[in-house]
Amino acid sequence: MGMGFRLKKHLVIIMIFIIWSIGSIFKWWNPYILPSPKEVIISAGELIKSGALIKHIAISTLRVLEGFFITICLAIPLGILFGVNKSIYDYFKNLLGFLRHTPPLSLVPLLILWFGIGEKSKIIIIVLASFFPVLLNTISGVEGCSKKLIEVGQTFNLSKINIFKKIIIPWALPNILVGMRLGIGYSWRAIIGAEMVAASSGLGYLILDGQQLSRSAVVIVGILSIGILGTVCDWIFGLLTNKFNYAQEVNNNEGV
């Protein structure tokens, strides 16, 4: 059953690959538009051998991690503050609502004017893209903390700091991880867009360069690289989220 479930999850991907391979062999489409899997594998091998693919992956990953780290340092403390103190949150609600609905990539031209085409503008784009999923899920997690747990803590004369550390934060952690899981995905989308507009390195630049040189196989290698990296990040946060969700369910079932 386990094997069947794993196969089921990958069935659509396998079918797409088979259709892609057969279509390339029988020339159902122009190979200039969509090269064969063999050509893509050859291009990937050449890029790996030259070190170009590894370099672009490393640069994009570093940018994403740097921006996402800043997001965590800003969004989680603010989310906890807003979740604990709704009156403070009310002051910022309209501003945050406006910024949340502003696409980060629409700010690229302005950020380039302010900060140039260096790293700062790209990092800011990542922060803006990943900030709100982390912030809003943190607020939701803190606000949703079980009142019964807090009452139990008060019964045992726990201080406010201990209630915060031992009850509120552990309870909110699954929500925070969900926000981080969403945020890391938004970070990858944002950095690729930013690198296509203003960069001389990174996977976004690799894709744009491949398009300008009419090397569609290189474009696909870049796209697949992004997909794989994003999937790995999502898988890691998925494991963490499931682990803490399970712990929370155990507490709920025990009537805590």
Automatic annotation (TrEMBL):
Keywords: Cell membrane, Membrane, Transmembrane, Transmembrane helix, Transport. One of its GO terms (cellular component) is plasma membrane. Residues 57-241 form the ABC transmembrane type-1 domain. It is a multi-pass membrane protein. GO terms for biological process: alkanesulfonate transmembrane transport. It is found in: Cell membrane. InterPro entries: MetI-like, MetI-like_sf. The keyword Plastid does not apply. Gene3D superfamilies: MetI-like (1.10.3720.10). SUPFAM superfamilies: MetI-like. CDD domains: TM_PBP2. The chain crosses the membrane at residues 12-29, 67-85, 97-117, 123-142, 190-208, 217-237. It holds the Pfam family BPD_transp_1. Belongs to the binding-protein-dependent transport system permease family. This is ABC transporter permease.
